[in-house]
Amino acid sequence: MVSARSYISLDLRKLVEEERVPTYDPRTFYPVCLGEVFQDRYRVILKLGFGCVPTVWLCKDLSMCAY
After folding, report:
1. Domain boundaries defined on the chain
2. What's the pLDDT at 24?
3. Statement: residue 2 has pLDDT above 60
4. SS3 26
5. pLDDT digits over 9-65, tens only?
6. Model pTM greater than 0.85?
7. How far is residue 56's CA from residue 37's CA, in Å, rounded to a whole number?
8. Is there a contact between 41 and 62 (Cβ–Cβ < 8 Å)?
9. Can you list the positions of beta strands (E) in the chain?
10. Gap between the Cα atoms of 52 and 67, Å rounded
């Protein structure tokens, strides 16, 4: 069982960027930039959200003109 003291409380009324959370370590994440293209196919449009590990990005599939 994990103690409640080991969790960080965040104010849900404020927008939070994971880069500002005290436990964020930039060495363990790829620094995605808006407009970046992956595999010559997927363009990053916006950040949808993040959780305890993943960050979810909306990307446009340039080969199919679809999101």
Report:
1. 13-61
2. 73
3. no
4. helix
5. 767 777 666 667 777 777 877 888 899 999 999 999 998 887 777 788 999 999 986
6. no
7. 15
8. yes
9. 37-38, 42-50, 55-61
10. 25
Q: Phi, psi at residue 47, to the nearest 5°?
A: -85, 125
Q: Map tokens 């010559």 to a residue.
A: 40
**SS3 of residue 64 by DSSP:** coil
DSSP 32: -
Distance CA(42)–CA(2), nearest Å, equals 39
Measured torsion, CA atoms of residues 37, 43, 49, 53, in degrees rounded to the nearest 10:
-30
Integer Cα distance of 48 and 58 in angstroms: 6
Task: Tokens for 18, please give them.
Answer: 């994971």
